Amino acid sequence: MHSPKTNVYHIAGLDDRERGFNRQAQVILQGEAYQARLRYETLQIDVESVDTEEEAIQQLILKLQERGYTQLRTQRIFHGEHYLGNQELWVDYPDPESPELPAVSWWVWMRQMLKWKK
C-alpha cells in the first residue's frame, strides 16, 4: 500500500549501456514540496525538493539524461493509494541535443591517428 502523499510512476527508456529498463519512481509530497526517488541496480537518484510534482519528475529525467539515459518516458500508475494502471498516458521526454563534432575528412583523421605532419 502506498502513502496518500506518494505518487508512483513507471519510468522506461534505455540506460547508459543502451539496455532497456522499466522501473518505478516515487514522487513524495513532504510539506509543500515534492521529491522524486528512483532506484535502478546500484544507482539511486534523489531529487531535491521542488514546488511541483511535474518539476520533480522533470529533474529526475534530467539527472538520468546527464548519466546517458535516453528515450525516457513516464506514466503515473499510483495517485496516492489509488491504482491507475494504464489510465494515464505516457509522457515522452526528448533526448538532449548532442554537441555536433566538426566534420573531419578521412585523410585528416588518418593523419591525426598516425601523427603525420605535412
Describe this structure in words.
The radius of gyration is 20 Å and the shape is elongated. It is built from two helices and seven strands; from the N terminus they run E-E-E-E-H-E-E-E-H. Strands 1, 2, 3, 4, 5, 6 and 7 form a seven-stranded antiparallel beta sheet that branches. 19% of the residues lie in helices and 39% in strands. It has 118 residues and is of the alpha+beta class. The chain has one domain (6-94).
Class per helix and strand makeup = alpha+beta
Q: pLDDT under 50 segments (min length 5)?
A: none
Radius of gyration: 20 Å
Series of H and E elements: EEEEHEEEH
Secondary structure: number of strands: 7
The global form is elongated
Which percent bin holds the helix content?
Answer: 10-25%
Strand % is 35-45%
Query: What is the count of structural domains?
Result: 1
Largest sheet: 7 strands, antiparallel
Average predicted confidence as pLDDT:
88
N→C terminal distance: 71 Å
Instruction: Compute the number of helices.
Output: 2
In a few lines, what is going on in this structure?
With 118 residues, this protein is an alpha+beta fold. It has two helices and seven strands, in the order ββββαβββα.
Secondary-structure map with pairings?
Blueprint: E1 6-14, E2 20-30, E3 33-40, E4 43-46, H1 53-66, E5 70-79, E6 82-83, E7 91-92, H2 106-114
Antiparallel strand pairs: 1-2, 1-5, 2-3, 3-4, 5-6, 5-7
